[in-house]
Amino acid sequence: MKNYLVTGAAGFIGANYLKYILAKHDDVRVVVLDLLTYAGYLGTIAGDVDNERCFFVKGDICDRPLLDRLFAEYKFDVVVNFAAESHVDRSIDNPQLFLQTNILGTQNLLDAARAAWVTGRDAQGYPTWRNGVRFHQVSTDEVYGSLGAEGFFTETTPLQPHSPYSASKTSADHFVCAYHDTYHMPVSITRCSNNYGPYQFPEKLIPLIINNILAGKPLPVYGKGENVRDWLYVEDHCKAIDLIIHKGRVGEVYNVGGHNEKQNIEIVKIICKELGKPESLITHVGDRKGHDMRYAIDPTKIHNELGWLPETKFEDGIKKTIQWYLDNREWWETIISGEYQNYYEKMYSNR
Ligand code: NAD
Ligand code: DAU
Fold first, then answer.
1. Which of 61, 150, 178, 265 makes the best surface tag, with the fewest CB within 10 Å?
2. Which ligand 2 atom is the nearest neighbour of the CA of 206?
3. Which of 234, 229, 230, 240 minimizes the C-alpha distance to 303?
């Protein structure tokens, strides 16, 4: 049995990853650690938590005594860190929280893992590590900043974040790399492009547009809607992380993305068409401050080294996603019933 600590798995990508690895591997036992912020919903993973192969602990990655207790009790072999404040617009409103969770939380997890996993010292005085352990950091393409009309992010593109969110993720990446270089900690990092699919919180573009159409609300597009994102179906991201943890090289960064660039306005029009609604619902609103123009991932490294390729085409993935939201109205109605209404009002009225 391999023991996993998966943080943030009551959120969008973490929940999809949890479901994926529980179905794929008989030999993993998972503890989910999640603070259940506005973005975390236990209902998403309630059916997976059986207290045999999957346990749930409500808690903060910044809470070191809690982490030490969990490492002592469950003897983790693998840590996968999804836990984060993940929304750019919220980071513009409240940067401090992003520093707290995304930077200090990650560094706290690294230290807890280091305390639990180091077995001794080698001849050069570097720590030696328990066999088979791995710390995987789930990062983002936003650490690279923004592209012009041409070119792609590779793993060696200089990091040039613009938003408080991406600055915090960049800082966390630097800490993960620093723990590898300084302590020889067995780490890996994925930098993925925009995900879409089931269980995504409706503050993000695709579920927000679906949700607004279903609720008969206008469809807010920032600025002219010409900004480009590189969309990947969430299960393809989960498969990439799983592959890297099993076969990826320690100390390496892997970009994950599927050459699926679309302007925001195209995405919104596609969803309108799929749901049979008029494009006249589209409302151009004030632009995001410091809005990155274009993201585009070069996934050559993960393809050449590990054979990873995205399996779900956007045309199919978007249909599956829309159908999922249609079939799971109760899920998103619960999710948006609380704090989200205040958030929406604050973010979109008078924009
Ligand atoms: P999300 O906001 O849907 O989920 C985040 C989860 O983390 C929630 O369940 C929340 O309760 C939990 N959490 C927040 N603060 C915590 C804390 N202090 N301690 C414990 N748990 C905490 O995010 P997501 O979209 O699923 O993103 C997951 C990770 O993937 C993030 O690290 C994000 O930066 C990264 N990422 C996201 C995308 C994307 O398109 N969504 C793309 C690339 C990378
Ligand atoms: O690239 C990976 C990143 O993708 C992740 O690291 C982040 O966690 C994730 O939130 C996402 O960031 P974006 O800012 O790209 O995603 P978001 O869905 O917020 O916005 C996508 C694009 O759509 C962006 O250009 C802003 C625009 N937008 C967004 C919203 C919410 C709108 O035009 N209208 C909206 O209402």
1. 150
2. 18
3. 240
Per-residue model confidence as pLDDT tens digits over 292-325 = 999 999 999 999 999 999 999 999 999 999 999 9
Pair type for strands 261-263 and 228-230: antiparallel
Give residue 255 CA to ligand 2 midpoint distance, Å. 18
Query: 295: Cβ below 6 Å to ligand 2?
Result: yes
Contact 264, 208 (CB under 8 A): no
Residue 4 is among the residues annotated as catalytic for this protein: no
Which entry of 60, 141, 203, 236 is annotated as an active-site residue? Answer: 141
Alpha carbon distance 226, 242 (integer Å)? 33
Is 222's C-beta closer than 6 angstroms to any atom of ligand 2? Answer: yes
Q: What is the pLDDT of residue 338?
A: 84
135 and 79 Cβ atoms separated by less than 8 Å: yes
Q: Which residue has the tokens 């005085």?
A: 125
How many Å apart are CA 43 and CA 49, to the nearest integer? 10
Angle between the 12-24 and 234-247 helix axes, to the nearest 10 degrees? 60
pLDDT of 272 reads: 98
CB of 238 shorter than 6 A to ligand 1: no
Active site residue 68: no
- Let me know if 141 is a catalytic residue: yes
Ligand 2 atom at minimal distance to the Cα of residue 163: 14
Separation between Cα atoms, residue 336 and residue 53, nearest integer Å? 30
Q: How far is the CA of 159 from the centre of ligand 1 (A)?
A: 20
Q: For residue 51, what pLDDT is reported?
A: 98
Q: Are 302 and 308 in contact (CB under 8 A)?
A: yes
